[in-house]
Amino acid sequence: MNETSESKSVVSVADFVDAGKQRLELDLVAGESGLNRRIEEAAVNRPGLALTGFFQFFAPRRIQTLGHAEMAYLQSLPAKERRGRLQKLFENHIPCLVITRRHRVLSEIEQLAEEFRTPVLKTPLITKHFVNGATIVMENLMAPHTVIQGTMVEILGVGVLLTGRAGVGKSETALALIKKGHSLVSDDVTALRLDSSGSVVGAPVGVTRYHMEIRGLGIIHVPSLFGVASVRNEKKLDLIINLCSPETVTSEDRSGQATRTRPVFGTDIPLIEIPVAPGRDVANIVEVAALDQMLKRLGHDAAKELDAKLIAVLAGGGKANE
Predict the structure, then answer these.
(1) Which of 82, 115, 151, 172 is the most exposed place for a label (fewest CB within 10 A)?
(2) Which are the catalytic amino acids?
(3) pTM (2 decimals)?
(4) What's the CATH number of domain 145-306, 1.20.1560.10, 3.40.50.300, 3.30.420.10, 3.40.50.150?
(5) What is 11-142's CATH number?
């Protein structure tokens, strides 16, 4: 499986705005020149105590948000004092400031945003909804990530990554699975990240989202041909299937008891090698492999159960058909 080195993202305010524009309904009000500022922590901070002048435990590396309580407090202050409190906040080099609940942006905030080159954004969301949504967006942006060569599909809830050399039939196998009613996550190139729960999640690279390249046919737009249910924006990775030539199979185990894994972000993902040969219905085999993986997660392992039965028969001197 070809992949780039695993890394953590350096997230700028511009990255946050792009990633959360629709979900968080963000609009830039002032401070556009500071959109390249880095956000170094995923959590969102409400600077209530900082507005009173207490900065001892202030977290300046986080997104700062002013909700209903903070705005009401600021509006209760005399204009000169209000500007002084806000200036101390901006002097801490905060990455950006977000004002929630459709509150009017105070003129002092707009002026200080331009003076300190600090982006100021607004959103119609209730503060708690913005904080929850922004935290998820930031955790996704800052999560360890990598980009690999491989096609990912969802088969009845199981996320399967198909790997193998160029031309081995990854896209054709995925296309056959889509025709069976399963869903495409990504074709040819897959972005993987580690989410906050410790699961590895696969997603398409933005420019190729919903598209597939089929040799001899060209580029197709999957949802246009098979409907919106034929694609997924992202999926947890449960299984890696390497499509290979019969002579390159590295495992000689035919019972399926030898468990192989491949580490991704420190998580061991089950790995299966499927030889590709003329006449083999690879899509059916991949589908069965995914269903078998689902059964294993539920505690049902056919190979181990058969092995236990054979041992019991041999130990007891019984007959194999009993």
Answers:
(1) 115
(2) 170, 188, 254
(3) 0.71
(4) 3.40.50.300
(5) 3.40.1390.20
